[in-house]
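Deliverable D4.2, example record:
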Amino acid sequence: MPSLKLNTPIEIDHFYHIYNRGNNHELLFYKDYNYAYFLKKYEKYLSEHVSTFAYCLMPNHFHLLIKTKTELVSNQLKKLFQSYALSINKQENRTGSLFTKPFRRILIEDNEYLKYLVFYIHYNPEKHKFFKDFRDYRHSSYQNLIRKKETDLNREELFDWFGGREEFLNFHNYYHEEKRLEKYIIE
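Output generated by the structure prediction step:
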């Protein structure tokens, strides 16, 4: 695994793994429609500033794989978090921070690592036992990527990293099976 640069300043034209969780490990998404609302806010604040390759929203945390387009990404992420938190605080009659501060980010400089990160992001609901099979989880980019429907995700460039759509699917299936076998490995 390459050395990772954690919580570095966000610069233009770089890949980042952005992730965060609920403050004190609390929920971020209380109701099913909160997931879509977060993505709508994400589009509003970030669509002009990043290319999005993968995401996964889970009840108490999220992961994003982005490539920056402008110098305003950090500021726009803060706006997203503030706006979403205000809505959730009102909905849930709560006060205070919703997200852990500061949000986490890892600069990704290794092309091979990007593929593993995409799998990791998609596999997360199964890894954390939120869902039995990550491929069926509705709140990640996996289904949006494999469908033929139009998407704001940078699908074509992402598929190119894997050598095409079929290799993307094979990679996810292969590493998924490898994860299932880990419990049988004795070292």
